[in-house]
Amino acid sequence: MNQFNNALTLFFSLLVEAIPFLLIGVFFSSALLLFVDERKLIAAVPKQPLLAAFAGSLIGFLFPVCECGNVPVARRLIVQGAPAAMAIGFLLAAPVVNPVVFWATWIAFRDQPEMVFLRVGFSLLIATMIGWVFSTQADLRPLMQPAVARAMPIPKRAAKKTKAPRTKAPQAEETASPLLQSGTFFLGQSDQPLQVDGLGQAALAANPTLSRPIPERLRLMLDNVIQELRELGGILIIGSAIAALVQVSVPRDLILSLGQGPVSSILAMMLLAAVVSICSTVDSFFALSFASTFTTGSLLAFLVFGPMIDLKNFALLLTVFRGRAILYLFVLAGQLTFLLTLLINLYVS
Amino acid sequence: MTVQTNYKTTRRFHPLKSLYRLQGLLDIAAISAWGVLLLQYWLTGKINLLLHPNYVWLAYSAGFVLLGVATVKIAQFIWRVVQLKKRKDRNQGDLLQHLSLFPPGWSSALLLAVALFGLQFTPQPFASQMALDRGVTETLTMTRSQPQAFRTSTKPENRTLIDWIRTLNVYPEPDAYTGQKVNVEGFVLHLPQVPDNYIGIARFVITCCAADAYPVGMPVKLPSGNRSAYQPDKWYRVAGQMITETLADKRQLVIQASKLTEIPTPANPYAS
Fold this sequence. Notes:
The complex is a heterodimer of chains A (about 350) and B (about 270).
Chain A lengths: L1 H34 L2 H7 L4 H10 L8 H13 L4 H10 L5 H10 L4 H23 L10 H6 L4 H6 L7 H7 L8 H4 L13 H5 L8 H36 L2 H9 L1 H15 L6 H6 L7 H13 L2 H7 L5 H26 L1
Helix pairs in contact in A: 1-13, 3-5, 3-7, 4-5, 4-18, 5-7, 7-17, 7-19, 15-17, 15-19, 17-19
Chain B lengths: L1 H12 L1 H30 L11 H31 L19 H15 L7 H7 L26 H10 L10 E9 L8 E8 L8 E8 L13 E13 L2 E14 L9
Helix pairs in contact in B: 2-3, 2-4
């Protein structure tokens, strides 16, 4: 009974600490989604791939969104012709490289400020590197979901090649009925089954709300706040419950033996990050509950890898990318996170 | 997939509209419940068991904001119901589509249920069992908290338990403190590895919230009798002086108690 009460106390303490940050996060993301025109951003980004990837990674400071908000934004960036490097950099870094997450991590790890900087630094590094890798693919369309690929402008370099037999993807798209597209299964679960995201090219291309009058935008912003709060709140509750249960019910010996090994701790935390899918604005509190038993490197792995790839994110990414591209992202991000945090475990802490 | 079936029937009977309304009501209920919960924890002081005092303002501010959002939504909802009677439904599908992972209503219902449960729930301060589970440390080097402001001028008898741990942390040699006066407060721990005439006096330290609470403590040599007179989790003020002893194969600083006074559990039991 005592154990149960401890678990509940942990559970509510995580929730009570995390909800203010969740609230700040969704307010920011809703406001910016509805008031910022990302086309202007794209125009300002440098053309050189490495710089574009880095610039993309930093855009999170303008769009403080967590990993659920960044996929739609990244998709709009891609559809509007943003360089691959920039879009991928943004996709991977934005959930971490933004002021709200910075603040939340700072509060959680007040006594270890290096955690905050390492988290942001590693995320920037990994996102820039993967963005750079993706920039070698001049035409991103074969990696995209058909609906997104169709809405994308044809890159100049790739346009010359369109007659080449290599690009099979666009042909396949033309024959596919809109109803058969893989993006639709997901939206069948949402409030508005018929307004399938991937279908309306016009809806994809521009932020559809920017043309609305201000009062209407405010109303939409509030609705968006509630939608995100509901969705992320649900996941936060499940995540907190898992954290509390693991802390109280898993034998301490097991946690210690797992959590103190330089390699095992990182792998365990990365797995946990992928499964728990907790929002990046609040995941530092989740990680905090493991701070006394897990290595610093493994906590970093959780904080860096989780926002990039997790189960919830996977479903969201499938609305933009084909499975193959997501696999590349997953493998690259996983390996880089593992290597960097292993370095921390072996040589720093 | 149930949603799809729902949708098929919608075309004729417009249950989609009522689905929206239900979802809207659930949302409002869940958001208000969380607002009330945060404010209730704050007003009843339960929040002290959950959060570091520095961050309590975040929680109650969030409570006010949530209640504000709920109020606006209720006003909107009423307005919309009134308008619906006058003219045909506005286009509901105009919102920027947010991708949702769960069936509608699922998250709101969970949020609402947890909030309602939370309103009934009284958190308990972590106690000795948790401390033993987590392993009481005498040094903070293993853990995370580093002394922010270290004052050597503090008189020994004015040091709290945390001050003592910090002092030891900086200069661990027990002999340096032998004979110094001690006056500390904490809860009783029965450490399994020491003889019967010793107890542990401990406190939990938090830096952010209860999730990162970790125990620190020191052994206390009782003036007389054995530890059965001092129940675990009871709070005591221990007065005495420092001695050096070898306990559980470790030479360490021990409090030789001359007087133990039982005190009530403090409202904010965690040290920070």
